Amino acid sequence: KYIKDFKVEKVRVVGTSIFRDSVNKEQIHREFYRRYKIKLEIISPSVEAKLTSIGALHPLSFNNENCLVIDIGGGSTEVVLIKGSKIKKFISMKIGVVREFNSYKMSDSIDRTYKKKIFNDLEKKITSYKFFNNLKNNNFNVVMNGGTPTTLAAIKLKMKKYDRKEVNGQKLSSSYIKSVFDSLIKMKSEDRLRIYGMEKGREIVIIYGVFILLSLLKILRKRIVYVSDSGILEGLIQEINWFLNYHDYIQTEVKKWLKKNQKIT
Fold first, then answer.
1. First CA to last CA across the chain, in angstroms?
2. What local confidence, expressed as pLDDT, does residue 20 receive?
3. SS3 state at 257
4. What is the DSSP letter of 209?
């Protein structure tokens, strides 16, 4: 509706890991185009990592500081190491809140034994990726985006109405995350909805997001997380802005050159 109302001429729509993993990609492409007359672009892990990191860091003021951007999604988790505003390395892990929930089929009142099992399983999965072997020197800020960290920030702020401006840049300590986790894991999913900051639909899978988050912090030996409520969408916007600015710059330079070389032309 907005695309039509604002007479938008160019639209870019991207799909991430859930589309990459699907066996009927071609059918999805055809059906999407049939419904919306827009081409769906299923992006590669490297493009997803780039867009995620650009988007996540945009509202934060880290300048050229080293950052590890972590996007905990439904089907995958992207981890991107940024040094001097450049991507040095990245990984897309087949670990996500929905994927893990589907593996265990448990959400309510998880007991201590099962909690330990899930943590052990996740630690093995994460450390099986060689990416983490070269992060012994953890001289970087950890920035996380996605529903898990933003929900934890909203709970911390006791938000009756979600405000992304307040969430952006929030610092969460591992001790705070553990205390919230210990409360959530004992609850039934419907009871979690009574907590200020808990979004409808998030109450079932939030537990697995925190499992992943805490496992990563342990492996990275980090105690502080910076939250960003920006990601792929904002990354796309930044990419478009860069293209438009570059386009304007080229046009200006061409006009200058033509003016200077009128006799030659």
1. 46
2. 87
3. helix
4. H
